[in-house]
Amino acid sequence: MDEPLTYVRPMDLADCDRVSEIRIRGWQHAYRGLMPQAYLDGLGVAADAERRRARFDQGDGSVVHLVAERAGEVLGWAAFGPYRDGEVRTADAELYAIYVDPAHLGRGCGGALLSASVEQCSSYPRVLLWVLKENAAARRFYERAGFRSDGAEEPFDVDGVPVPEVRYVKELTG
Q: What pLDDT digit, counting tens, does each position of 67-99 carry?
């Protein structure tokens, strides 16, 4: 039997609880063994959802949140907007996050979210993203979509443990 089609749409306020569940479970799944387990175990869906609801309508609209749903169920989330170099915005776009419910990995939701995000960033010259250096699965996912590491690396500290990230880039305009 064929999988139902994945539909990507803008996130709305009613999606906050599910998006938080996807984000937290995504961190706990993807970063197991890459971050301190006590930190991952301490992440809370309810607290994340509360923060997400409180910030939902804030900002200048430059950050876009998308969800992927299949048969009416939200299975993934992505967020993107202007690239941040510290507090300075550059001319590039940045994919801030993309997570899929771990029970639905490998079924096209992540690819649909990534494609929609990149398509919506077409007015930017490039899309950049940061990924954990040791997250081989995520790095392969982005590489299959045409992203390449540009050699930039930055430290990321999780409960006193360094977890380095590498930057990936995809050229959008020639």
A: 999 999 999 999 999 997 766 667 899 999 999
| CA dist., res. 174 & res. 171, Å (int) | 7
Instruction: Supply φ then ψ for residue 107, to 5 degrees.
Output: -115, 10
Cα(32)–Cα(157) distance, integer angstroms: 15
101-129 confidence digits (pLDDT tens): 999 999 999 999 999 999 999 999 999 99
- Cβ atoms 161, 134 nearer than 8 A: no
What does the angle CA 51 – CA 56 – CA 172 come to, to the nearest 5 degrees? Answer: 115
DSSP structure string for 128-172:
EEEEETT-HHHHHHHHHTT-EEEEEEE--EETTEE--EEEEEEE-
Output the average pLDDT for the chain.
92
Spatial distance between the Cα atoms of 80 and 94, rounded to a whole number of angstroms = 6
Compute how many other C-beta atoms are within 10 angstroms of the C-beta atom of residue 56.
14
